[in-house]
Design brief:
Layout: H1 16-38, E1 60-64, E2 70-72, E3 75-77, H2 79-91, E4 98-103, H3 109-121, E5 126-129
Parallel strand pairs: 1-4, 4-5
Antiparallel strand pairs: 1-2, 2-3
Length: 144
């Protein structure tokens, strides 16, 4: 005996559970992503200078002590004299308009930002930061 059905078999996927899972994942990502972006604890990297002495003859180096005192080419300079002095130096140059900044690691970061702002106003095209050489772990050779 043969069973004949008048209605064809219809296959419809049940997407409700899939939508539920996707909405839960969307909510999780919406909650977790801002926390990841704002709550990251960072340590600035230790750098290696490209040359042994980045502040060679003719280069201008601005030093900033932990107390916030400025030194231009190892000579003390007042904050009020910094802009006119840098303008006088860089107005005569067509090339090599680079100022190197060597700041103490304990200095208030706003002092470094202020120095970079003064440098930009005085005609400096690029500011380079000078760091101390990172100590190499014993037994591991430095890869060039």
């Amino acid at each position: 005996m043969r069973l004949i059905s008048s209605a064809p078999v219809q296959s419809q996927p049940n997407v409700t559970p899939m939508i539920d899972v996707m909405l839960v994942l969307l909510i999780i990502f919406m909650v977790v992503t801002p926390a990841l972006l704002n709550g990251v604890s960072l340590q600035p990297p230790q750098a290696v200078n490209l040359t042994a002495h980045p502040d060679d003859e003719g280069d201008q180096t601005l030093g900033i002590t932990a107390n916030g005192e400025y030194y231009l080419n190892k000579r003390p300079i007042a904050v009020s004299d910094l802009l006119p002095t840098l303008r006088a130096i860089y107005s005569k140059r067509d090339t090599n308009r680079v100022l190197y900044i060597r700041a103490d690691k304990l200095v208030d970061y706003s002092k470094v930002i202020d120095a970079m702002d003064v440098a930009a106003k005085s005609g400096v095209v690029m500011v380079g930061m000078i760091s101390e050489k990172k100590p190499e772990p014993r037994g591991i050779p430095h890869a060039p």
